[in-house]
UniProtKB/TrEMBL annotation:
Any GO MF annotation of the entry: acyltransferase activity
Gene3D superfamilies referenced in this protein's UniProt entry, alphabetically: 3.40.630.30
Domain Acyltransferase MbtK/IucB-like conserved residues, every copy: 22-69
Organism annotation: Streptomyces toxytricini
The UniProt record lists the keyword Acyltransferase: yes
Keyword Membrane: no
Keywords of the record: Acyltransferase, Transferase
Top-level taxonomy: Bacteria, Bacillati, Actinomycetota, Actinomycetes, Kitasatosporales
Signal peptide: none
SUPFAM superfamilies: Acyl-CoA N-acyltransferases (Nat)
Pfam families assigned: Acetyltransf_8
Protein name: Lysine N-acyltransferase MbtK
Pathway: Siderophore biosynthesis; mycobactin biosynthesis
Function: Acyltransferase required for the direct transfer of medium- to long-chain fatty acyl moieties from a carrier protein (MbtL) on to the epsilon-amino group of lysine residue in the mycobactin core.
Amino acid sequence: MSTTTEILYARTDAVLGSFAIRAMDPLTDAELLHGWVTHPKAAFWMMQDASLPDVEREYMKIAAAEHHDAFIGLHEGRPAFLMERYDPSRLELVGLYDAEPGDVGMHFLVAPSDTPLHGFTRAVITTVMAALFADPAVRRVVVEPDVDNKAVHALNEAVGFVPERPVQKPEKTALLSFCTREQFEAATGLTTGASI
């Protein structure tokens, strides 16, 4: 059992410094997450009207789930982003695509900031992807962002994602996209290793 202070993955960005990922605790992190998921910039997270108890419940459900995990991302030791990892053959995309062994689904959300750093969101998604590929069992990352979320499509492309097609989910029309380990390494120049 991980403690919330145990670092599961860490990397250093040449420009922006240290990034790390730790386990999320639904009780101690709920207030922090509530501020992030209800912020106007998090509209695509679809929790704009969530109360603090709603957020606690949602992340307790994720913490208890067999095929879904949530993590807090740190920048220079301070909470700065949320990362979720899930099995797309069992959640989110069941019946909407042909799952392959080694597929992992991912969501990420950058915390709102009064002092945005140039390149920060790209450094976050790079960290999230490197953390996922640190698991040697992961061969491909699968994402399903809203088709209208042009900003995240550009970020996804920057780390190697290739869009396949729109898929209709109950809550949105999503752009199904894939990124293999090789595509990620070619796009970012990083070599993956270690473990999460």
